[in-house]
């Protein structure tokens, strides 16, 4: 009788421990910040960490990278296609704005690249992904790379103010081309505007020279539509659609704001392929309104 009772008690303890373990895992999943989940998923491309896949909703994962099939199956197929041991991931910056997390990453992903990734979360799980990738280049005329520069998030109380500033800048200067208004957004000193675009030097003078050179070569940079502005504190990401030299492109521009002025800029510009080359039908944009 005592042996039977002991066996029942032991089984009960094991079952309770399993329940506790399961609850703890679920609680841990829910308590982990979305920003950390997004970074873990990106790192898993290099490490193969299977835990990170649990941060993705397996039944509802919408993919906007047009070279990747939809859902987890599409993501898995790309990972399988990577040459073994070739993937490298170094997340330089990560930010959160409501249900969105956006990151700035140094990749080796079918070759050296710089990328912005955007993830949308629902109930603690990733349900949608966008990105914009560009080839890594040598430092620009001011010696800056596509990834170096400030990383510290500050001025959280100014997030909405800074987002409004960038939205105004994109609309007024980049879309409407009203360069007479640049002084409202950027101060005139060379060190007042640090530039990480591969071919443009620091300051308004560097930007003006680059625009003159493009005009001389007959290259037009057109911003047609601003799809989304995301921010956390002093960092704001603008996602736009337009053309560069007549080619349909997606512009991702990351700005750092200080005391109501834009002081630093990073970007990637990615061509958007013709629809018959898409691996999914979700489009490059299609953001849910903030």
UniProtKB/TrEMBL annotation:
What is this protein called in UniProt? Answer: SnoaL-like domain-containing protein
Q: Which UniProt keywords apply?
A: Signal
Q: Does Cytoplasm show up as a keyword for this record?
A: no
Q: Does the keyword Flavoprotein apply?
A: no
Instruction: Tell me which species this is from.
Output: Photobacterium proteolyticum
Tell me the leader sequence span: 1-25
Query: Which residues are in the SnoaL-like domain?
Result: 43-129
| Gene3D superfamilies per UniProt | 3.10.450.50
Q: What is the lineage of its organism?
A: Bacteria, Pseudomonadati, Pseudomonadota, Gammaproteobacteria, Vibrionales
């Amino acid at each position: 009788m005592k042996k039977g009772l002991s066996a029942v008690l032991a089984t009960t303890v094991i079952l309770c421990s399993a329940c506790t373990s399961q609850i703890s895992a679920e609680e841990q999943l829910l308590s982990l910040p979305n920003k950390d989940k997004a970074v873990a998923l990106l790192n898993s491309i290099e490490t193969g960490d299977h835990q990170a896949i649990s941060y993705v909703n397996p039944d509802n994962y919408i993919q906007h990278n047009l070279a990747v099939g939809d859902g987890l199956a599409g993501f898995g197929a790309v990972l399988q296609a990577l040459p073994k041991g070739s993937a490298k991931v170094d997340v330089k910056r990560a930010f959160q704005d409501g249900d969105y997390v956006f990151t700035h990453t140094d990749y080796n992903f079918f070759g050296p690249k710089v990328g912005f990734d955007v993830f949308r979360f629902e109930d603690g799980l990733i349900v949608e992904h966008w990105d914009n990738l560009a080839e890594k280049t040598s430092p620009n005329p001011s010696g800056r790379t596509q990834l170096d520069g400030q990383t510290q998030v500050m001025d959280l109380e100014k997030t909405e103010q800074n987002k409004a500033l960038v939205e105004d800048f994109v609309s007024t200067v980049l879309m409407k081309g009203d360069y007479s208004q640049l002084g409202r957004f950027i101060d005139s000193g060379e060190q007042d505007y640090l530039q990480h675009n591969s071919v443009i030097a620091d300051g308004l003078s560097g930007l003006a020279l680059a625009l003159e050179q493009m005009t001389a070569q007959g290259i037009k940079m057109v911003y047609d539509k601003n799809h989304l502005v995301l921010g956390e504190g002093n960092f704001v990401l603008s996602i736009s659609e337009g053309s560069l030299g007549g080619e349909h492109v997606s512009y991702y521009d990351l700005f750092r704001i200080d005391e109501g002025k834009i002081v630093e800029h990073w970007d990637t510009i990615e061509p958007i392929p013709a629809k018959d080359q898409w691996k999914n039908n979700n489009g490059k944009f299609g953001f849910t309104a903030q």
